[in-house]
Amino acid sequence: MKINKLRPLEHNFTEVLKRLVLIPETLYYYGKLPENRVKNGSRPKCVAIVGSRKNTSYGKEVAYQVAYEAAKAGAVVISGLAYGIDSIAHRGALDAGGVTIAVLGTSIDQIYPVSHRGLAQEIIENGGAIISEYGPGEIPHSKGEMQSRFLARNRIIAGLSDVTLIAEAADRSGSLNTASHTLDIGSDLMAAPGDITRLTSRGCNKLLMQGAIPYTEPSDLLDLLFPERLIKKKPGLHDAGLDDELLQQLLEKYAETEVERQILTEILCGSQDGDHIIEQMGISASDFNQAVTMLEIKGAIKSLGANNWMGVIR
C-alpha cells in the first residue's frame, strides 16, 4: 500500500486543521482523501464519532445507528480505529456504503490494534483513508509517549470534523479529550445521554450538563450537519403546519417585542439562517442576539449551531 505525504494546509480536505493551536507539520495517509464536492465546490460534511473502548450494548446501538445514517446522508465519518465505539462507528459507515476515515495514534505503517487490520483494509477499499501524523517507523520510546500520541491524535479527529458526537463515555474517557479540542476550535459538540447509574454514561451526562447539544436520534445530528434539511421541511407557513390563526397565537404566547415577533415569524416560516434574518429585517446583530436569546429561553426556538435556528411548535 502506497503511503502518501502532505502538508495539511495544502490540501482542500485537511486545510481545516488550521483551526488547531498545534497544526501537524506533516500528515501521512494511504487510501483516498475526500475531495470537494463537484456541484458546489464545498468540502464534504464530516462528523467525528468517538467514545468508550469498553462500550455497552447501548453505546454500540447509538454509535452504529448514527454512523450508518450520517454516512447514508453523505457525511464522512471520522474516528480513531480503536476498540469499542470507534470501530463500531467505522463499521456503521461502511455498512451504509459510505466513506469513513481513521486517524491513528501510531505510525502510519502500524495499525493498532493489530486485530483491526482487516477493518482498516475495508476502509481503504470503500474509498476512505487511514491518516497519521507519524511517519513510517516512528515508534514511541516509552509507554508515556505512546499515551501522549493517542491524546494528540484526538485534536486531528476533532479538527477534521464539523460536529463531534460522543456516543458513550465514562468520567475519564479519552473521548472527553476529543470533546475539549472540539470546543477549543469552536465546532459543535453533541453527546448521547445515558443511564445515570452506569459509569460508562457519566462522561456524556457531564458534557450535557456543561452545555453539549443532546443527541437523541439521527435527525438531531443530520439537521445540524445539513441545515438545508429543515428549510426543505418548512419552506413556508402552511408547510410548517401553521395557519394564520395559529401563528398569531404563537406570537402572542412567546413574543413580547416587535423584534421578537418579526424574528419568530421568519423562523416559523422557514428562515433558519440568523445572518439572513438580520439582513432582511435591517436590525443590529446585538438586537437579534438579545431577541433570539429570549425566544430560546421561552422555548419558542432552538439553536442548531452556527447561528441557525428552528421553531419549536407546541
Produce the secondary structure layout.
Blueprint: E1 4-6, E2 27-31, E3 46-51, H1 57-72, E4 76-79, H2 85-95, E5 100-103, H3 117-125, E6 129-132, H4 143-159, E7 163-168, H5 175-185, E8 188-191, H6 202-209, E9 213-214, H7 218-225, H8 228-233, H9 244-254, H10 258-268, H11 274-281, H12 285-297, E10 301-305, E11 308-311
Parallel strand pairs: 3-4, 3-7, 4-5, 5-6, 7-8, 8-9
Antiparallel strand pairs: 1-2, 2-6, 10-11
Helix pairs in contact: 1-2, 4-5, 9-10, 10-12
Question: How would you characterize this protein structure?
Answer:
With 314 residues, this protein is α/β, with parallel strands linked by helices. The protein folds into 2 domains: 222 residues, 3-Layer(aba) Sandwich (Rossmann fold), CATH 3.40.50; 84 residues, Arc Repressor Mutant, subunit A. Helix content is 41%, strand content 15%. The strands form 2 sheets. A 9-stranded mixed sheet has the order 1-2-6-5-4-3-7-8-9, with helices on both faces. It has a two-stranded antiparallel sheet with strand order 10-11. β7, α5 and β8 form a beta-alpha-beta unit. The radius of gyration is 21 Å and the shape is elongated. About 3% of the residues have low confidence.
Q: Given the C-alpha coordinates, what overall shape results?
A: elongated
Number of strands: 11
Structural class, by secondary structure, is alpha/beta
**Mean pLDDT across all residues, rounded?**
89
CATH A-level architecture of the largest domain: 3-Layer(aba) Sandwich
How far apart are the termini?
56 Å
Q: Please report the first level of CATH classification, the CATH class of the largest domain.
A: Alpha Beta
Q: What's the helix count?
A: 12
Give the low-confidence spans: 231-240
- Fill in the CATH topology of the largest domain: Rossmann fold
Count of structural domains: 2
